[in-house]
Amino acid sequence: MKAVFAIALTEIRIGIRNSWVLLSAGILAVFSILLVLLGSGPSGAVDAHPLTVAVTSLSTLAVYLIPLIALLLSFDAVAGEVDRGTLQLVLATPIARWQVLFGKFIGHTAVLTIAIAAGYGIAGVLGYALGGTDGFEPLADLLSLVVTSVLLGAVFVAVGYLASCSVRQTGTAAALAVGIWLITVVLYDMALLGGLLVSQDGIFARTIFPWLLLLNPADAFRVYNMAAVDGSLLQTGLGTGASGLPLEGSGVLLSPILWCFAALRLAALAFRRITP
Predict the structure, then answer these.
(1) Which of 73, 90, 235, 248 is deepest in the core (most CB within 10 A)?
(2) Single pTM value for the model
(3) Above 80 in pLDDT, residue 134?
């Protein structure tokens, strides 16, 4: 495992040197602070903590930003090595290919974790201060958002590796990563909405839609976090409640967890076929 951690530390140093941590944390912090400030207005009218209100908005924002940041971190993990001609040097060392991939995964996930914790942490301190210190429940909601955001990021880091191992040029990998982001985060939800509009109260809306919603790791992330703060918001009139889903509570997170393992496994299989 020493080789795995050595590769992970290398990726973390590269992320810090290339300002990935600073840039990602800055983007998350700016949007998070804006949502906290905007959420402090309606929260006063409905007697909800501004941080709790902001977490609901942040969960929607994270669905778009976290996968994009994760894919930008990982799309050239292998294709970039092939393109630069450095993969042959890496594989010349006594290290298995799965160790290379797993080390990169740990390193990139650590970079993403630092960025998420820093970005959300700044907004969390501000939101908690605006609402007053009336308990730790808003901070617990924020901590849950941070943990699940890291999980969502890990999923798309693994998906980015799969894209990177499927092609040999960095430009192609970048285009494939953008396409994955558009399909999973934007077009997928539009297709589900179209299905609901057509079906209304039909079979699709009652039985197929809930499963398709949880099938997408980004939607499962959003459903879990909205349900996590629902108890705090139902009494204020902001909660919507989550019912009719085949999985509830922590079971919703089974979707991104399975996606992460499956994407890493497929990426490892694709990596085996690459000849530097």
Answers:
(1) 73
(2) 0.88
(3) no
